[in-house]
Amino acid sequence: MAKENQEKFQCPECDSQNIRLRFQVNTKDKYDAYANVSEEIQCGNCFMDIPANVFIYINDNDIEDNKKIWESFYKPEHLKNAAQCSKCNLYYWQIEKQLFDKSIISPDIFYQTYDSKGSGGKMICRLCDPEAFKNNKQ
Ligand SMILES: [Zn+2]
Ligand SMILES: [Zn+2]
C-alpha cells in the first residue's frame, strides 16, 4: 500500500484516534444496516463499537463523511440493538468504560432478571449491582 493511502483512524463519535480493539464480525447474524460490515473497531476513548469503514479514513475530508454516515445510518441501528441496563440506562460500552476505569475488565457485565408475571427479563449491570458478580471471580 502506498504511503499516501495509509489508513488513519478517528472515532466518528468522539474524535479520538485511540483504538481499543479491532475485530472481525460475523455478518450472518447481523441486522440489515450492518450487513456489509465485516470489521469493527472499539474506540479507546468512548468504548463504542464502530464499523471499521467509518473509523478509518484516508483523506482528511473523509472524516466528515464518516461522521455523517455513522450518525445517520449506523448509530441509530447500533443504539436500537445495544444491550442497556434497565436500572441506570447506560449502554454496554458506557458500562465497560466505567468498569475499565475501576480496573474491571470482563465480558460479564450484565445479569438478567425474570419477573414472575413473565413479562420479560430485565438487564442489570455490574455497576448497579456489583455484589451479584462477586462469585464469578473465583
Ligand atoms: Zn470514540
Ligand atoms: Zn446499571
Can you characterise this structure?
By secondary structure, the chain is of the alpha+beta class. It folds into 2 domains: 3-81, no CATH class; 92-137, no CATH class. Helices cover 25% and strands 20% of the residues. It has 3 helices and 7 strands, in the order ββββαβααββ. The protein has helices at 52-55, 62-81, 92-101; strands at 8-9, 19-24, 39-43, 49-51, 56-57, 110-114, 121-125. It has a 3-stranded antiparallel sheet with strand order 2-3-4. Strands 1-5 form a two-stranded antiparallel sheet. β6 (110-114) and β7 (121-125) form a beta hairpin. The longest helix has 20 residues, at 62-81. It is globular and about 60 Å long. The N and C termini lie far apart (47 Å). The model has no long low-confidence stretch (mean pLDDT 89). The structure holds zinc ion (2 copies). One zinc ion binds next to loops.
Which terms would index this structure?
binds zinc ion, 138 residues, alpha+beta, 2 domains, three-stranded antiparallel sheet
Question: What secondary-structure arrangement, pairings included, does this model have?
Answer:
Layout: E1 8-9, E2 19-24, E3 39-43, E4 49-51, H1 52-55, E5 56-57, H2 62-81, H3 92-101, E6 110-114, E7 121-125
Antiparallel strand pairs: 1-5, 2-3, 3-4, 6-7
Bound molecules: zinc ion (ZN) (2 copies).
- Structural domain count: 2
The radius of gyration over CA amounts to 17 Å
Q: If you average the pLDDT, what whole number results? A: 89
Tell me about the biggest sheet?
3 strands, antiparallel
- Strands side by side in the biggest sheet: 2-3-4
| Helical coverage, percent range | 10-25%
Instruction: Report the bound ligands by name, code or SMILES.
Output: zinc ion
Series of secondary-structure elements, N-terminal to C-terminal = EEEEHEHHEE
Query: What is the approximate shape?
Result: globular
Number of strands: 7
Our count of helices gives 3
User: Uncertain segments of ≥5 residues (pLDDT<50)?
Assistant: none
- Judged by helices, strands and strand pairing, the structural class is alpha+beta
Distance, first to last CA: 47 Å
Which strand-content bin applies to the residues? 15-25%
